[in-house]
Design brief:
The protein is built from ten helices and no strands. By secondary structure, it is mostly helical. The chain has one domain. The N and C termini lie far apart (about 65 Å).
Amino acid sequence: MTSYCGAPPLPYDWFERWNFDPALLVALTAAAAVAMRSRHPRLGLATVGVLAVAFVSPLCALTVALFSARAVHHVLLVAVAAPLAALALPSRGSHYLGLAFVASTATLWAWHLPALYDRALGDTAIYWLMQLSLLGSAIWFWRSLFASPPVTASMVAIFAMAQMGMLGALLTFSRVPLYASHAASTLPWGLEQVADQQLAGLVMWVPGVIPYALATALIARRVWVRAAGTA
C-alpha cells in the first residue's frame, strides 16, 4: 500500500502536490467549527491552520521523500498544534501530568522506531494512527502542563524539552540509515539518506525544543509575577 501522501515528490514538482482529500477537508472544517465555539477561537483556528499546513499543503507529500520534512511535520503536530489546542481548550485539572508526559513521550519515541515508522508510511490506517496518537497524546500533555502548579509545570516542561532534544541528538549522531522508507527517496534531492536523517535530528534538537523552552519561560514569568504581587 502506498503512503497516504502519495509517492515521493521530486524537487521540481513537490510544490504542486497539495492534498485535497475530501475526508480530511471535512475533518478540518469540523475542527474549525469546534474552534469557533471554544473559549479562545483565534487559538483554535490557529491550531486548524497548523494542521492544514501539515496535511493539506505540499509538506504532506514532501514528508514521503525526506525524513527531515517528516521531522518538521512531527514538530508541528506535537509542539505547535498541540499547545495551541491546549490553550484554546484549557483543562480544569492537572492530576495526571506525569502520566500524560510519559504517554506523549513514549508515543513520540515509539513512532520513530524504524519498524513502526516504515509500517506507518506504507499503510494509510497505521499512518493515521500515528498522526492521531501523536497529536492526541501531545494535547493531553500540554493541557495538563498548562493547568499544573507553576513549579511542577516548569520542571516537567524541562523534562519534555530534554526528551525532544535527546531524540534529535540520537538521530543527528546516527551513522547508519535507519528507515527503509527513505532508502532511495532522498537521492533526487541531493541528500544521502544518513545526511537527511541527521538533518531531521537537528530539526528536532534545535527548533523542536523551542516551544518547550518558551513554555518554561512563560511559566517562570508567571511565578515571578505572582511572587512580585505578594511581596
